Each structure stands twice: as C-alpha cells, then as structure tokens.
Task: inverse folding
C-alpha cells in the first residue's frame, strides 16, 4: 500500500483518533485533524494533501457536504465521507458532491483501507480521463482552427478559379466571335465562286468542287466555334431557360430541311409527327440544339441509302421523340462515355466531328429538366429517346 498525506475532518475526537491510528498503521501520514469545515479549509490552504477523510456532521457553519463542494472546486482532492447514517436523504446529498468513496461508522479497518485504495484509483482515473478530454478538446480546437484556415484557403482558391473561368469564357467568346467574322466572309466568297462556276468556264467543275469544299469546311468550323461558345456559357452558368411559343409543325419540318441540306451522304429522314398540338411553349434554341445534333449525328453515321426514323409526339405534357438510325452504332464498352466532352467512339473512322455534339445535347436536356436515353450496338444502329416537359 502506498503512503498518502491525509487530512482527517471529524468532530468526534475519539473517532478521529481511532481513524488516525488505523491510517498510520497502514503507513499513511496524517497532516492534521479538524473538527470543522472552516478549519479543514484553512489547513489545506497551508498544507498539501492526497486525501481528505470527511465526516458529514461537523461543528461550525460548514457541514461536510458543503466543505467537500469547496474542496472539489478549489483543490480537486479526493474526499472519502465518514458517517454513522446511511439513510436515503443523506446518501442523495452525498452523491451530489461526487465523493470518491463513502464509509459507514463504525468502520472495519480492512474495508477502510480498501475504500481508500479505490478512492485514490478512482481519482487518478478521473484525472487521466479529464486530461485526455482536455487534450481532445485542444485537438478539436486546433483542428477546427485548421479547418477554418483551410476553408479560407479553399474559398480563395474557388474565387481565383472563378476569376480564371470567367476570364477563359471571355477569351473563348472574344476569340470565337473574332473567327466568325472572317468565316462569314469566306463562306460568302465560296458561295459566289459557286455562282461564277455556273457560267461557262474551262475549270467550271473544279471551281465548283473546291468552292463546295471551302463551304463545307467553313460550316464545320463555324459549328465547332458555336459549340465552344455554348460550353463557354455553360461553364459560366449562363445558359438560361427562355421559353416562348413555337409552331411545332413548322419547327420540326424546318429542322429536318436544315439537317438534309448540310448532309454529305444519301440518307433519308422520315419525319413522323403524331398527336402534336399546333403550338407548344419551350426554349426554341435549346430544343433546336438537341434535335439538330441528334439528327445530324444519325445521318452522319448512317450507311448510304438508309433511312433515319424521326418520331415526335405529345403525351401528358411531355414532348417525346425517337431518333433511330441504321448506322455504325456505339460499342458497348464505350457507351458510358457517350455524353462526355470531346469523346468520339473508336469506330467513327475518318468521319469529321469534335465530340461535342452529344455533350451539348445532354446539357440542353438537363436545362430543360428532361431526360435522354439510348439503345445501341456496334454495326446495328442507335436509337435515342428524348422526353422534354413543355407547355401547350
């Protein structure tokens, strides 16, 4: 048994002496005997103690319970209560002060030593736990401070990234618009060349052929710039939903005519409109981007002299469509990447394309709060299904 410095606070002199004798027999050092709470506090002010044996009933104004509360708050020394009473009321008062142990008088010497050992052990474990809690709280405070600093850095980085993104968008838009003006001039010149080639000229066929190549190349480049501009707006979150009324029949017929005019192969488009209202309200530009890209792809990747089936119908406030081609299809292993920017399947061959068309389609469908799905297999064609909520 380790030796402890113990203060005895007991108003019964005989009981105090018996307790002193029992404790000293077990090699403990008694720093003093007090009969009041006031005297015990004074003695602790001048002497260090490892343990206080505290009678509940004391002379003076402070009883053992009140004195223990002060000791707990001021010194943090373990207290073992001594009492001849074990009634419920007394026990409830004692528990409220979180004592280290409780001894009923008259005490058994063996039990007394066991209680003291348990009291010291309990006190040490509580202090270890408190130390760990304090260390944990300090770590939490430090981590919280680190997290705040990290969040500040992250906010600064996000702000910087936003600035760079806005700058990139402005550069892309300025450069793209800068390209569009000379491209328009080149396109006009190519169309004039074609007109001149209609007259008798020894190089009539060559002029017409080269003019057509220039025109097709300009249209492709113009389409690419339009796509780049679109994603510049998308990255800057500047694609807004702008609904307006459109005539459904005229819209889809004109759309098919434009796609046919821009195609370079002999592929038919069979447009089937059924159960369509005369007008609908939606974003015309976004709808055009969706169907023009899907139809152009269907035609581009179809075999010569085949037909693209284009069905459009209305059902429960949803504009539904199906675009089915008989083209090269999409390999199963690559279908998960279909809507990624700049993705082109390995089986596209020498067909021109930027890999942006279906990304634009997906973005437009998302802005319109619609959905797009597809079925495809290599060499067996592709079918796209598009559902767009609209107002009649």
Result:
């Amino acid at each position: 048994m380790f030796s402890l410095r113990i203060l005895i606070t007991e108003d019964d002199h005989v009981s105090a002496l018996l307790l002193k004798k029992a404790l000293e027999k077990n090699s403990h050092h008694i720093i003093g005997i007090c009969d009041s709470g006031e005297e015990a506090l004074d003695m602790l002010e001048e002497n260090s103690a490892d343990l206080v044996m505290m009678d509940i009933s004391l002379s003076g104004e402070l009883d053992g319970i009140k004195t223990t509360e002060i000791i707990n708050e001021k010194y943090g020394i373990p207290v073992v209560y001594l009492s001849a009473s074990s009634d419920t009321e007394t026990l409830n008062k004692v528990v409220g002060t979180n004592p280290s142990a409780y001894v009923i008088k008259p005490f058994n010497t063996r039990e007394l030593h066991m209680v003291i050992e348990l009291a010291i052990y309990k006190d040490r474990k509580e202090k270890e736990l408190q130390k760990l809690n304090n260390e944990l709280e300090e770590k939490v405070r430090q981590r919280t401070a680190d997290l705040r600093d990290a969040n500040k850095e992250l906010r600064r980085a996000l702000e910087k990234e936003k600035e760079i993104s806005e700058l990139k968008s402005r550069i892309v838009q300025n450069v793209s618009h800068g390209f569009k003006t000379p491209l328009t001039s080149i396109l006009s010149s190519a169309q004039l060349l074609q007109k001149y080639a209609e007259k008798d000229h020894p190089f009539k066929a060559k002029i017409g052929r080269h003019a057509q190549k220039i025109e097709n190349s300009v249209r492709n480049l113009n389409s690419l710039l339009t796509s780049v501009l679109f994603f510049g707006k998308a990255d800057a979150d500047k694609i807004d939903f702008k609904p307006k009324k459109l005539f459904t029949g005229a819209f889809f017929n004109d759309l098919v005519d434009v796609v046919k005019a821009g195609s370079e192969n002999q592929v038919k488009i069979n447009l089937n409109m059924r159960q369509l209202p005369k007008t609908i309200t939606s974003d015309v530009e976004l709808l055009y981007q969706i169907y023009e890209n899907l139809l152009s792809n269907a035609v581009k990747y179809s075999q010569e002299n085949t037909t693209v089936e284009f069905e459009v119908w209305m059902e429960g406030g949803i504009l539904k469509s199906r675009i089915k081609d008989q083209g090269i299809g999409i390999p199963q292993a690559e279908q998960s990447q279909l809507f990624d920017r700049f993705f082109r399947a390995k089986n596209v061959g020498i067909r021109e394309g930027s890999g942006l068309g279906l990304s634009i389609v997906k973005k437009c469908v998302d802005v319109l709060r619609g959905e797009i799905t597809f079925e495809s297999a290599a060499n067996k064609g592709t079918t796209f299904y598009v559902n767009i909520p609209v107002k009649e």
The first helix runs from residue 13 to 25. Residues 51 and 145 are 40 Å apart (CA to CA).
